[in-house]
Amino acid sequence: MSILGRLVRESGKFKVGMVITLILIILALLSDWLVRWRIGDADPIKAGTYAIFVDPNSENWLGTDRYGRDVLALVFAALPVSLTVAFLAGLLSTAMGVIVGFVSGYKGGRTDAFLRTVTDMLIVIPTLPLVIILAANTRSLGSVKLALVLAVFSWPFAARVIRTQVMSLRERPYIELARISDVSDRSIIFGEILPNMAPFVAIGFAQASVGSAFALVGLTVIGLGPSSQMDLGRLISEALGYGVISMGKEWIFIAPVFCLIMLFYGLALMSQGMEEFFNPRLRSGA
Amino acid sequence: MDVGVEKLAVLEEGRLPASPDKHSRKRRLSPTASYILRRIGLFLITLWGSLTAAFFFFRLLPGDPIRAYVGQLQQRGTTTTFETNEAMLAYYQKEFGLDGSLLHQYFSYFRRLLIDFDLGPSVLSYPTPAIDLIMRALPWTIGLIGVATLLGWILGMILGTLTGWNRNRTWAEVVTNGALGFSHLPAYFVALFLIIFLSYRWKLLPPNGAFNTALDPEWSMEFVLSVIKYGTLPVLATVIVAVANWMLSTRALVVSILGEDYLTFAGAKGLPARRILSAYVLRNAWLPQIAALGMALGGVVSGNVLIERLFRYPGVGSLLIDAVLIKDVNTAMAIVSILIILVLTINLIIDLTLPLIDPRVKLTGAGG
Amino acid sequence: MTDTQVQSAFRPTTSDEPLLEVKDLDVHFRLKNGGLARVVDGANLTIRRNEIIGIAGESGSGKTTLVEAILGINRFSNRQLGGQVLYHARNGEVMDLAALSPHQMARVRLSEIGYVPQGSMNSLSPTMRVADQIVDGMVSHGMSKSKARAKVPELLEKVGLDKRVMRLYPHELSGGMKQRVIIAIGISMEPSIIIADEPTTALDVNVQRRILATLMRLRDEMGVSIIMVSHDVAVHAELVDRLAIMYAGQVVETGGVRPMLKAPLHPYTKGLTDAIPTITATRQRIDGIRGVTPSPDNWPKGCRFHNRCQYAMPQCAEIPPQLVSLSDERVKALNQVETSTEDRMVSCHLYGSGADRD
Q1: Residue C23: helix, strand or coil by DSSP?
Q2: Helix residue spans in chain B (DSSP H)
């Protein structure tokens, strides 16, 4: 934990990113309470609670949308859904990335060559079309399935981070020493390599979460997200669908856009802060 | 490679090798030739691998595509001349390459894609072949991506070099922080703001479409200008984010090059700053960035799908989403296949050009 | 002219005429925490025509910073320069290199002072052919491109390389060959001085010896002075005429290399020379020097070596000693050794230095 303390103290980027992300997480955890605070016991997603297209005022702080829903309450209700999917996808793709990157970096040779070709392939070919097609053809697409779909196509980024680190750790003298002195692979992996990997798994997680969030929002903004749930992207998509821009009522989607931008910034700053902290060579770079 | 080391070891002694060992020379390929062969091999393997993956991806999609097609066609009121439902299903199975065993379908997919260049009719505008729809949309997409990517890359390289070179100046700091801000934004959010302000508020540029539909598509000055006018916003949305990202990575490269021993030594040679920047910094910074361009292409194409959708731009991305929305799996599959071929081919071209300009590539090999 | 024979049979007499005089040179760095790192602090050194002078000292003693200051290389913006670097040009003109503008300094480099840097493994740009990297230095000093190109084979030959090397890229060269290319660049404008900063540290012993021999041969052929920076006293013993020992940002002893290694005066020099194992020596523990190099932002008061010195006297902790010449008689009397023709300078209270000034 002292490492986390040093990270927070020494990296301004990480600190800002962490504060932003924590605020979002706290808002998401307080979601139910916040919705009730704004609109009482009404269902935030149900149409017709208020008059439609009310401009921001003292009761509806961010106004209402075409269906007469309170925009702020909608944002509070949608935030946890978006965060859950982004973090779940980040977690799943990190897990896949760690496994692939680890095997690739540790085994080396043909295994590495094969896994690296697959990883590079998934990075080089455009995968969002596949995500779109998969999402559109999956029946009853919920948070978990969507997260899985996103993770399937975003693990290569985490895998690359992990592979590079394992490769460099493998070359360290003390690992070499352990290898030639007949220590089992298992104790090398769990005793020597894994403890040194934690920060890079964290970086991989932050990057995978950003990547997943990008894809998730892209997917939902064009209206292909889960239809059963309200998330921030779908708020934007609906607002675009009934033409808020041409009506000059952009404030309906400014709040969800703002929340998502904060999510992107929070995660990206954390991952950059960590990268610069654990990989000081990068520090001069930015 | 070992031949090279032997030769150099001789040179180390200050003597010429008596005569090059012709036998060992002949048996080995030159580094360039072996690099090209390896790279083309990797291209073929990757192409085969990703198309195979795509094939099984589409075969594993939930639902029966044929029934979905037929259902779609009937829904859209397409008249059929088939006696029975079975005959119709069998006909479409063949049309869409879904007859016979999975293995048969697999080979037929490759044959149809690479030799016949026909993956069957689209549902989107039956009976127009899916490939024809794609070929109609592809120029728009290539134009959009090509202009936006090149513009973003070139501007990013220039800005990154300038901010890296002047890294202690205030203005460079300001530009870098600005770029940091934009680099974390998805292009489709930038697009939203551009539409709001440049189209609706200030009415400077049209918010959607690819050209003024009142004009006939022809090579007239008026039409070309209209294409440029309509293309500005989607290009701008992509370029803003691309410039920020290319600038930051170039800047990081330049800053690390500035710390290299060869830069200190170039200074110790008494070279003027201009020469150091052009010959030592730029040359070592832009080569890795060309290689990075190829790797970034997949993401660019992905992002462009969303941009085209937001701007209703008649490219492949819009076509894909139109197809997906009515579950036209055949067209979607054709689009994915074409995009894969396109991106991998461009990557191959970039990698084959690299050894012409970067002396190190031949030895480090295809994997980088 | 065999490169393998390291100690060349004859040494041209080094004239007493000074070529470069470093006078009270300070290279300080303002630290972020407000402190001042006095990496080089009042260093004095004279380099004569046609001599090879060695600078020795442990890492952190300021060797590299000193020669980089002579060359006007400034890696950090927080550098503060003080003192003089007087260069006696061939036409008799004397200029203070420390006072030149970056633009003027650029012209001095290569044409007056050649540089063979530390870490020369990475001192050639990986994306340029060897020839281009030799040529561009000459071109930037006013030579025509064709003339510069024509000179490349001859330069490569001078440093013992085949002329075909010019068409190669750095990654196609071995470490020793890269070092030779760098030396070729260093002598391309026929400078009066070559500064070689740890030129052989990363190379294996055989290559190292051949490179050193090449440097000596160049000195004989071209009449160039060489400043040789190395932490390795054995390298100095093989190569240099005179030796300067640096400690804590200052030159603490100078003199002819043989008398100095045979009979070191400064206790720190003693420590350094004791650390050289010899074949003839009986088996004994190498003592090295107690303690660690102090930090440049907090040098000890008085003599900077006093807290590591076994001969320290009360005044050592109070009064900084000055670098003063000792007469031959004095040296002889102190050490009971054969006298040397080289003058000897030392900065140590044991020899009474500094007392007359403070």
Answers
A1: strand
A2: 2-12, 22-27, 31-60, 65-75, 85-95, 102-110, 130-165, 170-183, 187-194, 221-258, 261-268, 273-275, 283-310, 316-325, 329-357, 361-364
Chosen from B144, B192, B251 to mutate, greatest number of chain A CBs within 10 A: B192
Same-domain check for residues B214 and B90: no
Which residues in chain A have their CB less than 8 angstroms from residue B58's CB? Answer: 133
State mean pLDDT over B207-222: 76
> For A89-135, how does the pLDDT look when each residue is reduced to its tens digit (9 = 90+)?
999 999 999 999 988 888 888 999 899 888 988 888 898 899 888 88
Report yes or no on B20 lying in a domain.
Answer: no
Residues B107 and B210 in one domain: no
Same domain flag for B298 and B244:
yes
* Interface B:A, ≥3 CB–CB pairs < 8 Å: yes
- Most confident of the ranges A138-152, B262-276, C274-288: B262-276
Where in chain C are the domains?
3-247, 250-351
The pLDDT-based confidence of B62 (bands split at 50, 70, 90) is confident
Q: Measured between alpha carbons, how far is residue B59 from residues B118, B220, C127, C246, C334 in Å?
A: 18, 45, 48, 76, 95
- Cβ contacts (< 8 Å) between C120 and chain B: which residues? 261, 265
B346 to chain A, any CB pair closer than 8 A? The answer is no
Is B261–C106 a contact, with Cβ atoms under 8 angstroms apart? no
Work out how many domains chain B is built from and give that number. Answer: 2
What residue spans define the domains of chain A? 3-282
Reply yes or no on whether the pLDDT at C333 is more than 70: no
The CATH class, in words, for A3-282 is: mainly alpha
Token digits of residue B78: 């397409």
Which range, A251-260, B158-167, B354-363, is most confident? B158-167
Beta-carbon separation of B327 and A137 below 8 A: yes
Q: Which chain B residue has its CA at the smallest distance from C137's CA?
A: B269
Enumerate residues 96 to 155 of chain B having a beta carbon within 8 A of any beta carbon in chain A.
Answer: none
CA distance to partner chain B, nearest, from residue A187 (Å): 31
Identify the CATH number of the domain in which residue B233 sits: 1.10.3720.10
Q: What is the pTM of this model?
A: 0.83
**Same domain for B298 and B243:** yes
Instruction: Pick the closest to residue C166 from C154, B151, B237, B327 (CA basis).
Output: C154
Tell me if B223 is assigned to some domain: yes
Which residue of A126, A224, A268 is in closest CB contact with B339?
A: A126
A residues 101-120 near B, CB within 8 Å? 113, 116-118, 120
- Indicate whether B7 belongs to any domain: no
Contacts of A106 (CB under 8 A, 6+ apart): A166, A170, A189, A193
Residues B315 and B210 in one domain: yes
Q: Which two tokens stand for residue B317?
A: 């991305």
Residue B201 and residue B271 share a domain: yes
What are the residues facing C357 on neighbouring strands? Answer: none
- A-C interface (Cβ pairs under 8 Å ≥ 3): no
**Is residue B3 in some structural domain?**
no
Residue A199 phi, psi dihedral angles, 5° rounding: -60, -35
Mean pLDDT of chain C: 83
Condensed to tens digits (0 to 9), the pLDDT of residues B83-140 reads 677 777 788 777 777 777 888 888 888 888 888 888 888 878 877 888 999 999 999 9
Which tokens hold the place of B130?
């899916």
Point out the residue among B248, B321, B343 whose CB comes nearest to the CB of A132: B321
Task: Give every CB contact of residue B78 below 8 A, 6+ residues apart in sequence.
Answer: B126
Domain holding B349, by residue range, is 33-123+328-368
Q: Which residues of B touch A120 (CB under 8 A)?
A: 46, 295
CATH of C3-247, one of 3.40.50.1820, 3.40.190.10, 3.50.50.60, 3.40.50.300: 3.40.50.300
